[in-house]
Amino acid sequence: MLLSVELLGQIDSVPGVSGVESVRLENSVQVLERSAHTRVEQVLVSTLDASGKTEIITNSYTVMATGLHYFDENHWKETVPEFDESENAFVASQGPHNVILNKHFDTPDLVDLLTADGVRLRSAPTLIAYYNRKTGESTPLAIRKDAIGRKIAPYSVIWVDAFDSVAADVRAIYTRSGFEMDVILRGELADPAVLGLGGAEEIELQVYSEFLDPVQPSKLQTQFPDGRADEVLDFGSMSMYRGRAFGSGLEGDGGVDRKIFVRKSFETIGNHNFLIESTPLKAPIPDLEKLNPGKQGAGPNLDLKRWPHSRKCQNEKDLMASIGNKPTLLKAGSKTYDANDHWTFDNLKRIGDYSFTTVDPLDGVSFWTIQEYGANIINPPDGNPWSTWINSITPY
């Protein structure tokens, strides 16, 4: 699953640049070209120079975002990331991947997903288990039970209280670039020591999801920063990258780094195919600890994500804790740019033409950003000192 961040800004009015004022004309945007992940748009701009002369200039730009369009009836259509509700199901069919969700949770093909290249993936979360890293044994904690799904947003469906002996909900989210199912823990977990399974430091919490179709993904072995092994699962046009669990609604954590890496594997057990996702029970952050044995009452919500996008930030405080309180300079300009001295085009001074940032398709977490900067270039073409800087950003 390729993920991207769309960073296209449109300036409607730019007064005072080299004596030129540019105003975009109303209703002048025209789509010239579409593809799966791009859209070329043309806009008419009225310019008024210092002498008072008015000119109409045609500009074009490219919008880039993963899953921007889907192909239907011999042409590209705009993706609409929404579920339509019927009597027994929720259907998202206006995008590059189609998803049908059964309203009844206790259904083997709860999720019926068809990828853009025709791969069918039917699956359902099946059970929650404890896994002992020392013995290699898994012990079921809870199995799915029936629950009725309901829409909580145009793009999201939730099944409340979906397991028999653990307080947990399951949430589905459809986006232009992918699909995910989240298991949301809402209550206390059993003490593994009381169950005779060992101490919490030896245990991982697991979620099993059974896949009904005989599709075996290609696997790329990767490793978390903490040394644990993981796999990137490639199903063709969609892939499963690095997963994370995270807390929501937690207050007063003092800006603690709150990430939990979720490792995954795709395994055949008997005649059944399972996606198995695991995270340490004794977590390095307060969220999962508050759901650990011995705590009274319900703790904060914890989402165990599959088909993950990237870590979600619940509020401004969470966002700042994840990216740091101060901006980071990636590349300083090495030459001052003066619009009066450099490149002009149709009497317009150029201030840079592009800015692009996208999520790394290999891990689903890191970013690549492509930006322009003023470079100390001797005799640059057309007097234009702009150069390109490409940088990788890892948010942890």
Describe this protein's structure:
The chain has 396 residues and is mainly beta. It has two helices and 31 strands. The protein has helices spanning 286-289, 316-323, and strands at 4-5, 13-17, 20-24, 30-34, 38-48, 54-64, 69-72, 75-78, 84-85, 89-92, 98-102, 111-114, 120-132, 137-143, 149-153, 156-159, 168-174, 179-185, 203-211, 218-223, 229-234, 239-240, 243-248, 260-269, 272-280, 301-306, 344-345, 348-349, 356-359, 367-374, 386-393. It has a 15-stranded antiparallel sheet that branches. Strands 2, 3, 4, 5 and 6 form a five-stranded antiparallel sheet that branches. Strands 1-29-30-31 form a four-stranded antiparallel sheet, with no helix packed on it. A hairpin with a 5-residue loop joins strand 20 and strand 21 (229-234). It is globular. The two termini are 21 Å apart.
